[in-house]
Amino acid sequence: MNWEEDEEKLLPSQRPEWSDVSPLPQDDGPNPVVPIAYKPEFAETMDYFRAVYRADERSPRALQLTHQAILLNPGNYTVWHFRRLILETLSKDLQQELDYVSKIAEKNSKNYQIWHHRRWLAEKLGPDAAGRELKFTEKILSGDAKNYHAWSHRQWVLQSLGGWDDELEYCHQLLEEDIFNNSAWNQRYFIITKSPLLGGLQAMRESEVKYTVAAILANPENESPWRYLRGLYKDDPKSWIHDPQVSTLCLKVLTSSGTNHVFALSTVLDLLSHGLQPSRELREAVDTLNPNSSSTKDSLGNTICSVLEHADAMRVNYWRWRKSQLIV
Amino acid sequence: MGELAADKHVKYILAVEKRKDNFESAVLEHLRMNGAYWGLTTLDLLGKLDAVDSNEIIEWILKCQHESGGFAGNVGHDPHILYTLSAIQVLALFDKLNVLDVDKVSTCILDESDIAGLQNEDGSFSGDIWGEVDTRFSYIAICGLSILKCLDKINVERAVNYIISCRNVDGGFGCTPGGESHAGQIFCCVAALAITGALHYVDKDLLGWWLCERQVKSGGLNGRPEKLPDVCYSWWVLSSLTMIDRVHWISKEKLIKFILNCQDTENGGISDRPDDAVDIFHTYFGVAGLSLLEYPGVKAVDPAYALPVDVVDRIFFGK
Question: Region Disordered: what ranges (chain A) (predicted)?
Fold first, then answer.
């Protein structure tokens, strides 16, 4: 791909190689709805694009034209589609095309068409492309660690092309950079449950609980690891309520002053609903947080809901509803 | 806090900004069909749909239709499921679904370029013949075919099974199985399940809690934990909560305040968060969100079809 800047600035009408083509103007009809005022360069480039698209001309100059059109509007799905047709017809080097996409994606990392084009290329190249695709998504994520497209592509690469080896370590790196990154926590769960190289959820539970507990203790107000922890006991409520690490964690958080207790409290509520028999210490820790100490006869669940109605006042209706659902 | 500057928003939508140096205009060219849906539905919700010439619009929409029956984002572009739905929705606003050859638009199960023809073996939907798989497309196919009353043209059970496979441990849904729960994807999945009568597959209590946790201090809603609030989530989160009967779990007053603060009360339009530039996309979602919050002066909107309730009633129950 020729990246010379001067050449790129020349419009089709200024280039001798386009002299045989009659550009096709956009036909909006007599009274256009939401008419858009275009810059002359945009209008001209698109007029020439329409001409070659209508003629289905799959030539090198048409390929270059799709590049011009993409620069002007990377969201134009018709242009990307035609580009793919040309790439196939001309049997272009798809690794080079990956280079091209990488450059365009630098400034358009949330563009659906680019990610779709990337997937099309990777699919064609097969498992050999896995390493490169993981590197590419890593680059995008280094700029925006929560880019939904990048994560979606990365999950597709892992499942379709492989490359699981370093994924857990990669997740760990991202969490070291930002322990609040919900996407990284989600990816961690994805790996634990789906990686063919690990033993599956149950086998990984022990080490993952330790990891998650440490993360929670560092930032108890962090929603993601609390949910992750709960997910480690998916379909196994008995283990959930009997694992001493879980209730110990809640107790630790609840007895720390100046800490956000909301998720710890809601976790205890969840444990109770599955049959946890709360310890005296846990009961006392919750009572300490209750501004309304006259309700000592209330069940632990009731007390928790009362505390949360104040501590998480935005969601007062939710906590009131939870209270109404308590059996005792 | 102020009020909803409805008249200003109507003016904003109606006024065509002919700024020649506007990069955004060029970028929006291929999705003009979406723009028409956002703008016109907002006008209808504010009771001002009669301010536009429906015949002109319908004429242009039909010009965007292809041989296959699918619609493009604009004249000269290829058909895509995203624009086919918007086209159907806009025609529904004008009560002109009858201009469609319903068989043509919907029967293309075998024709690759149309909605129903894009259903893959596993029940998922691709967006076009070039195979993007995403639960957004499940919703689009189900919503579009439902409006055309042709839901029987797809394998509903398979489609529902695919959506359920995208359900996560936190009660939410992602774009594909294992994908991070995201309010936009949750809306698509919940709405698709609502339309197909399969809401019992949603853990409403668990999802309801995840959704109401999207409300942050400012009163706005985000789309995933630890992200910034954005007016468009007033729709994605709120409509999902409405469909599972838990909209009262968020603080309505605080959200209303947030949305109103995102208005440009001088020039009209609503932005993603206070003091940012406005656009038609966020104007629609802000107004639709206010509708779900029962803000006075805004018509009721259907949370699954994303069209005014009276339009949906007209489709399914006649005039």
Answer: 1-32
